[in-house]
Design brief:
It is a single chain. Helix content is 16%, strand content 38%. It is built from 10 helices and 37 strands. It has an 8-stranded mixed β-sheet with strand order 6-5-9-3-2-11-14-13. A hairpin with a 2-residue loop joins strand 20 and strand 21.
Length: 668
């Protein structure tokens, strides 16, 4: 490496915390093959009855060797398998950067340890033939294996070492997984010449957090410097599982973990060499890059197409929409994210297929050609995780949007979805903030979306004396409801869309006829009209009939089942669902019981459910409306939200009871 090495920026996230105190060094928390008998005899894990496996111990150790500061990462992991569902923990798949032999893996070992019927300890080693080291692409390789003889009750362990040419990418360490962890420890011995920022979520607490300063062995023998090493150790005990939950962006946003960002390197007696740029310098570099900003101005095919699309248009918003609609309907997204283009944009347009960065920069370039104030915006998708604005870390971004300013109005556009109107962003882009890249005054922009998930359904039906229903409904799906349903219609036949979606919850439903309007008019609500019949939805018992008045869209369960939730509920967008039923009752029946009128609200009117039931002669009218007014609820609001959904589920379960009466009784 030497002192002239040009370090490359790496990864990062949320809050700076450096090494707080000095304590003595500790031994490794586990030894290969020495498994306590209690762990082998364990059959359940009482703190978490849903656990399929338990991470008994996970140990990682990073050191630097030689005058080039080659980085060595060692890992030793031991896991208890509790059930067959936990077999997925009985293997490993780890990718490494193999281009120019930057990384390699050595020392791969594994074994499965069990007790036989007589209580004798049995060990079965991982055979070399069961270890696969394969190409992923031109840059990455993957090492994978599955340990032998997996069974409920088995303990598995494995270890391996990753060698890197330098310390550009110091390994993250995750203390928390989707299964409970009894002990997790990370030990890093970092030469003081390498200046890292340690980044961790706020509120993270450790069972052990210690640092001591030692002489740097090995490397200083070949250097005329008296270098030191910071030997740091972090450990967590009894870490609960973090599992996927409804309305969650990605577990990585909330996982207990450490991340490291190389900030600079400092040779004794010399000025520090910065690795992390300022936001302004990063924007300047991006706009000068041939794979990013250099793509925005030079494309004759794009410019000519923009002129054709906007010919005769004077309204800037009409120009924007014409170009956006052309790109979203012409280009086929290959599903790949990124920020740098792989192919020339003129060629991408001719091919009609490209990745996310090509489509975004193509759109931005064409908007600029039409005289609009347009810029690229870097974001992190919901699956990729939240952004931090503390440090200019380029690798946290994985997608590009187009920003347009017209007068006082600002628009964010993503043309990767051919069914998404310019008034909406695809759900993957709804992740709070983005970074607008410009040579002058780059800035953060809020990803706010005015769109809702909006559905209005109106049902008119007749109920016969034998309990059979005939009727029709009309539904209007706007905003994200329309977008989602259009995607379903793209993948299914229209009658399948009706049967598998609308009629699925109506017992014994039969489809008589239907009509779907404005399927291709993405700027309009999707209209669905259906005539249906059902013999099984209404239950007949003697002189009584029982029916749930919510034929379509009934909420049968609460998605929020955790008693506590320490991370937000992120709906991505608000919701508004309206339902109206007008039901003609059969001759000789009256309403004996019906759901009472209710009005439920979340604090500060952030959500609401209202229901109104009334009878006029032989007609029953039932009206309900469900509203979630904001897309993001903090953990402190979780209990109120869960209780609100509980009450809505209970309200949706209430029935109407009809009773047969004689003509005399009716007259009385």
């Amino acid at each position: 490496m030497g002192k002239n090495l040009k370090w490359v920026g790496a990864i990062g996230f949320v809050v700076i915390v450096l090494f707080p105190r000095l304590l003595g060094a500790q031994d490794k928390p586990l030894k290969w093959g020495e498994v306590p008998r209690a762990d082998l005899e364990m059959t359940t894990f009482p703190p978490d009855s849903n656990a399929t496996a338990v991470i008994l111990c996970d140990y990682g150790h990073v050191t630097f060797i030689g005058s080039d500061f080659g980085m060595v990462f060692e890992r030793h992991r031991r896991i208890k398998i509790l059930s067959e569902a936990g077999y997925k923990w009985g293997g490993l798949a780890v990718q490494y950067y193999a281009k120019e032999k930057y990384q390699r893996i050595s020392g791969v070992e594994g074994q499965t340890i069990t007790l036989d019927a007589k209580g004798v300890v049995k060990k079965q080693k991982l055979e070399k033939a069961a270890i696969f080291d394969e190409n992923v692409d031109d840059t990455w390789r993957r090492l994978r294996f599955t340990l032998p003889s997996l069974s409920p009750g088995a303990v598995v362990e494995y270890r391996y070492t990753i060698h890197s040419k330098d310390g550009t990418f110091l390994h993250d360490w995750e203390f928390q997984t989707s299964e409970p962890t009894r002990w997790s420890e990370f030990h890093a011995e970092i030469p003081q010449v390498l200046q890292y920022v340690m980044i961790r979520p706020s509120g993270l607490s450790f069972a052990v957090e210690e640092t001591m300063t030692n002489p740097l062995p090995g490397a200083q023998l070949n250097l005329p410097y008296n270098l030191k090493v910071l030997s740091s150790r972090w450990a967590m005990r009894d870490v609960p599982a973090l599992r996927e939950e409804p309305y969650m962006t990605t577990p990585d946003d909330y996982r207990a973990r450490l991340r490291f960002q190389l900030a600079s390197f400092v040779w004794p007696g010399e000025m520090p060499v910065q690795v992390m740029n300022t936001w302004e310098k990063l924007a300047e570099d991006l706009m000068s890059s041939e794979s990013f900003g250099g793509q925005l101005e030079r494309h004759g095919v794009l410019r000519k197409q923009a002129e054709i699309l906007t010919a005769g248009l004077k309204d800037p918003e009409q120009k924007m929409r014409a170009i956006y609609d052309y790109v979203r309907t012409t280009m086929n997204w290959n599903g790949e994210y990124g920020i740098y283009v792989d192919v020339d944009l003129d060629k991408a347009l001719q091919a009609r297929k490209a990745g996310g960065p090509e489509i975004a920069l193509m759109l931005t370039s064409m908007l600029r050609s039409a005289g609009l104030d347009a810029h690229p915006v870097l974001i992190s998708t919901r699956e990729n995780g939240k952004l931090t604005d503390i440090y200019s870390i380029l690798t946290q971004f994985n997608h590009v949007l187009s920003y347009v300013k017209i007068g006082a109005n600002q628009y964010l556009l993503d043309a990767t979805d051919p069914l998404c109107p310019h008034t909406l962003l695809p759900e993957h882009a709804l992740n709070q903030t983005g970074w607008l890249v410009a040579k002058k005054n780059p800035s953060w922009v809020a990803i706010t979306n005015p769109g809702l998930f909006s559905n209005q359904t109106s049902v008119v039906a007749n109920l016969d004396a034998d309990g059979s229903l005939t009727g029709s409904f009309e539904s209007s799906d706007a905003g994200y409801s329309g977008l989602i349903d259009r995607h379903t219609l793209h993948d299914e036949k229209e009658d399948e869309y009706i049967r598998n979606g609308w009629l699925k919850g109506l017992a014994g439903a039969q489809l008589d006829s239907f009509k779907i309007s404005d399927k291709d008019s993405t700027h309009k609500p999707l209209l669905t009209r259906v005539h249906f019949r059902s013999k099984d939805h209404v239950q007949v018992a003697g002189d009584n009939m029982y029916l749930n008045p919510i034929f379509f869209g009934r909420r049968e369960r609460n998605p929020f089942t955790l008693p506590e939730r320490n991370f937000p509920v992120d709906f991505a967008y608000g919701r508004k669902l309206s339902y109206v039923l007008t039901l003609t009752l059969p001759e000789g029946f009256v309403v004996q019981e019906m759901p009472k009128n209710v009005s439920l609200s979340l604090p500060k009117e952030t959500g609401q459910y209202r229901r109104l039931t009334q009878v006029d002669g032989n007609r029953l009218q039932f009206t309900s409306q469900f509203v979630i007014r904001k897309p993001h609820f903090e953990p402190s609001e979780y209990h109120a939200l869960r209780d609100f959904y509980d009450r809505v589920v209970a309200a949706h379960a209430e029935q109407v009871v009809l009773k047969r009466v004689t003509a005399t009784a009716k007259n009385d």
